């Protein structure tokens, strides 16, 4: 432990630093200011208000409908807010500093703990004129400003987009319309489907035009058979070879019977 540091203060910082950094990210309150105020106002969680009402920031009962703690200080009798847990006190503190009175503070940078300390006094959080310097002294002594940088570097919590909110509103409206129609005895129309909710339907496949086989392709002729038929049936002049041979045999037969030679002309023969 560093020399001169209070062990109780260190334990308090260790216990609530994560809560302070969370509210720094969500509400914009410097974690160093939150921790310094908690240490100062509750005396590191050991004050009467902290022990009896989990009130770590001395917030009074202005416009408060919850439980309260009555406390008599040296000046007057006051009513202070009572919480179910210290974490509830931290949350209410962040919301309290988001009020209209403390609007000027939010124009300051989150790491400007000095500006925030003086701004709290100016806006009326405390009447003690030394209040800003007390906060600054605690922050610098325990190096609480480091938690401001850590909180800023961490990612902010996710926030639902406007599109999700619109879909939720549409679902709620449709449900309400169905309930109203049911009470009135009417049959509600089916809910409309939005483009993004409709499933993508694939287009029909184009019909493939199947070509009917031609007569030639349906009954292909054998190539060899065709060649043989052509050679037998036709001669080079396109006449039938079989008929030509038969005619020659008949003519030769008649020539022999008549005593004429089979070849040549009659006038040239001896």
Structural description of this entry:
By secondary structure, this protein is mainly alpha-helical. Among the domains are: 7-153, Lysozyme; 226-257, no CATH class. The protein is 50% helix and 4% strand. The protein has helices at 7-27, 31-42, 48-53, 86-96, 113-122, 131-141, 146-153, 162-183, 215-218, 223-233, 241-258, and strands at residues 68-72, 77-81. Strand 1 and strand 2 form a beta hairpin. The model is unreliable at 211-219 and 260-270 (pLDDT under 50).
Describe the SSE topology:
Blueprint: H1 7-27, H2 31-42, H3 48-53, E1 68-72, E2 77-81, H4 86-96, H5 113-122, H6 131-141, H7 146-153, H8 162-183, H9 215-218, H10 223-233, H11 241-258
Antiparallel strand pairs: 1-2
The radius of gyration computed from the alpha-carbon positions, rounded to a whole number of angstroms, is 54 Å
Strand content: under 5%
SSE string: HHHEEHHHHHHHH
Shape: elongated
Oligomer: single chain
Features:
270 residues; mainly alpha; Lysozyme; 11 helices; disordered C terminus
Short overview:
This protein is mainly alpha-helical and 270 residues long.
């Amino acid at each position: 432990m560093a020399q001169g540091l209070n062990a109780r203060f260190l334990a308090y910082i260790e216990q609530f630093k994560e809560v302070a950094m969370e509210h720094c990210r969500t509400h914009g309150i410097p974690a160093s200011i939150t921790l310094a105020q908690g240490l100062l106002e509750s005396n590191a969680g050991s004050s009467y208000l902290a022990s009896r009402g989990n009130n770590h920031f001395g917030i009074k009962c202005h416009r408060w409908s919850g439980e309260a703690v009555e406390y008599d200080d040296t000046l007057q009798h006051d009513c202070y807010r009572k919480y179910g847990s210290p974490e509830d006190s931290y949350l209410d503190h962040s919301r309290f500093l988001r009020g209209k009175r403390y609007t000027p503070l939010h124009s300051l940078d989150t790491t400007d703990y000095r500006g925030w300390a003086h701004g709290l006094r100016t806006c009326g959080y405390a009447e003690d004129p030394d209040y800003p310097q007390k906060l600054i002294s605690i922050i610098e002594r325990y190096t609480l400003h480091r938690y401001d940088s850590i909180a800023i570097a961490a990612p902010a919590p996710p926030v639902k987009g406007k599109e999700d909110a619109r879909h939720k509103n549409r679902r709620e409206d449709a449900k309400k319309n169905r309930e109203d129609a049911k009470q009135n005895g009417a049959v509600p129309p089916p809910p409309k489907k939005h483009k993004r909710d409709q499933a993508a339907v694939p287009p029909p496949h184009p019909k493939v035009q199947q070509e009917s086989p031609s007569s030639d392709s349906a009954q292909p002729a054998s190539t060899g058979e065709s060649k043989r038929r052509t050679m037998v049936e036709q001669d080079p002049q396109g006449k039938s070879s079989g008929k030509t041979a038969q005619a020659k045999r008949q003519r030769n037969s008649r020539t022999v019977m008549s005593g004429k030679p089979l070849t040549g002309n009659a006038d040239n023969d001896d």
